[in-house]
């Protein structure tokens, strides 16, 4: 019996373990950290052996294949030992795709993945498709394949997941953009990160579709290096030759893969970056065979995504916006571009090799004050303090929200758009966003009734 070892016992790892057991493998699950109780209970209910707080070499290095959590770095000591033994390492998505004939829509990009993935899923589900949501959001793809299979899956794919994918085929592949992110995991080499994103093209066939943003600095140039068999469709900020989707005269026009039009005013998501996300989602849904009328309805009634430019509430005349998903500089730039009032900007966390020059002009133009939120805010001080804006240095969300309330004036927007990962002070970006919302809403409860309103 072949042996599968899973490193990391969270959503993807536990799902992979359950699927591997169902497919007849000898399975062992190992996590260097703590395993959440709900995942321990799930593993125990299936009789799956596991360990936490350690990696026992004798139970791991005898594997025929290892399924690695995308959060575990490639240079982790146990990963290096596995590579020394030439044991194949794959991602949960790669493993799960072997055991389903479902059609796959894969979405990647440095920014906009979650919004676009959620929007595509919303459109397909509203149109009556049998569809699952997986990858960075939704339930484990492997667990769905094992226990509740679907005809279609919409999958948000990070570069880390793509690194461990070899035979996976996206019937519809969406590449939103490539901007600097996670460079600390790619030897601080942008090309290595670009190569990871371009892996979404692997294994596509002539009846598949590849969708990308025409104005991206990298994708068009990179495509010339690949023998692309699938149909290539480009969406653009402006009308022009070779563009298959674009806005003009107040209308969203799509010429491929299917003719489609709708007024821009009907789109539920505001902002230029969300127009790109909407174009990509519409093209992907049309490529999947959704009727144009259903696409139009889905684009107009989509409610949005938690932690992405999410309106929290107004307190004492100040607007609070949760953009905790902005874990890189480009995402923060998009958020700042959409602001129409003076901003108190919350920055900080685990820096991923950020270059803050990309938002310096916007900070000078839009921001009233900066609030740093991190275990170590030294790099932020060195870069931004010389701009002369009021600055607060904080190391907890409670202190951060208090500082924001002190620095903001009525009519301002307090924007949590940190540019950084969250793991120095929080469990993850969702924990960071939810703490922010809870503390802001607590201020709402104690604020004078005539000055506070719920959004």
Describe this structure in words.
The protein is of the alpha/beta class. The protein has three domains: 88 residues, 3-Layer(aba) Sandwich (Rossmann fold), CATH 3.40.50.720; 203 residues, Mur-like, catalytic domain (UDP-N-acetylmuramoyl-L-alanine:D-glutamate ligase, 3-Layer(aba) Sandwich); 145 residues, Protein-Tyrosine Phosphatase, Chain A. It contains 17 helices and 21 strands. The chain has a seven-stranded mixed β-sheet with strand order 19-18-17-20-16-15-21, sandwiched between helices. Strand 12 and strand 13 form a beta hairpin. Helix 6 crosses helix 12. The longest helix has 18 residues. The C terminus is likely disordered.
> Total domains, how many?
3
Shape: globular
Residue share in helices? 25-40%
Q: CATH architecture of the largest domain, please? A: 3-Layer(aba) Sandwich
Round the Cα radius of gyration to an integer and report it.
23 Å
Number of strands: 21
CATH superfamily of the largest domain: Mur-like, catalytic domain
**Percent of residues in β-strands:** 15-25%
Q: Quick one: CATH class of the largest domain? A: Alpha Beta
What would the CATH topology of the largest domain be? UDP-N-acetylmuramoyl-L-alanine:D-glutamate ligase
Distance between the termini: 57 Å
Number of DSSP helical runs? 17
Low-confidence stretches: 450-455
Mean pLDDT: 94
What class do helices, strands and sheet pairing give? alpha/beta
Strand order of the largest sheet: 19-18-17-20-16-15-21
Biggest β-sheet strands, sense, barrel: 7 strands, mixed
């Amino acid at each position: 019996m072949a042996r599968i070892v899973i490193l990391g016992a969270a959503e993807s790892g536990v799902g992979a373990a359950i699927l591997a057991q169902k497919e007849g493998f000898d399975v062992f699950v190992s996590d260097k950290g703590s395993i959440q109780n709900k995942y321990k209970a799930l593993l125990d209910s299936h009789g799956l052996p596991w360990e936490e707080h350690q990696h026992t070499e004798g139970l791991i290095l005898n594997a025929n294949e290892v399924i690695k959590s995308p959060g575990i770095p490639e240079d982790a000591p146990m990963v290096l030992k596995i590579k020394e033994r030439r044991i194949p390492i794959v991602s949960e998505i790669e493993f799960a795709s072997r055991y389903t004939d479902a059609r796959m829509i894969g979405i990647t990009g440095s920014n906009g993945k979650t919004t676009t993935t959620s929007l595509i899923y919303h459109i397909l589900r509203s149109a009556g498709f049998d569809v699952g949501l997986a990858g960075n959001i939704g339930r484990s793809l492997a667990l769905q394949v094992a226990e509740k299979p679907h005809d279609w899956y919409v999958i948000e794919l990070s570069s880390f997941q793509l690194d461990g994918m070899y035979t996976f085929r996206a019937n519809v592949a969406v590449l939103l953009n490539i901007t600097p992110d996670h460079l600390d995991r790619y030897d601080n080499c942008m090309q290595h990160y670009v190569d990871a994103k371009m892996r979404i093209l692997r294994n596509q066939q002539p009846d598949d579709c590849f969708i990308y943003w025409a104005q991206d600095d990298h994708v068009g140039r990179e495509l010339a290096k690949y023998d692309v068999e699938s149909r290539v469709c480009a969406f653009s900020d402006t009308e022009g030759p070779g563009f298959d989707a674009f806005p003009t005269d107040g209308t969203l026009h799509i010429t491929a893969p299917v003719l489609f039009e709708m007024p821009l005013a009907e789109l539920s998501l505001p902002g230029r970056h969300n127009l790109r996300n909407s174009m990509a989602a519409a093209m992907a849904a049309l490529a999947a065979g959704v009727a144009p009328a259903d696409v139009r309805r889905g684009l107009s009634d989509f409610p949005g995504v938690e932690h992405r430019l999410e309106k929290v509430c107004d307190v004492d005349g100040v607007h609070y916006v949760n953009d905790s998903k902005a874990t890189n500089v480009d995402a923060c730039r998009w958020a700042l571009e959409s602001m129409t009032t003076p901003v108190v900007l919350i920055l900080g966390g685990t820096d991923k090799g950020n270059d803050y020059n990309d938002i310096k002009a916007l900070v000078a133009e839009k921001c009233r004050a900066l609030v740093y939120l991190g275990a170590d805010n030294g790099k932020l001080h060195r870069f931004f303090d010389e701009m002369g804006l009021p600055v607060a240095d904080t190391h907890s969300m409670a202190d951060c929200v208090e500082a924001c309330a002190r620095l903001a004036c009525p009519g301002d927007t307090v924007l949590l758009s940190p540019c950084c990962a969250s793991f120095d002070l929080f469990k993850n970006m969702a924990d960071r966003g939810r703490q922010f919302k809870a503390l802001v809403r607590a201020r709402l409860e104690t604020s004078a009734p005539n000055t506070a309103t719920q959004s």
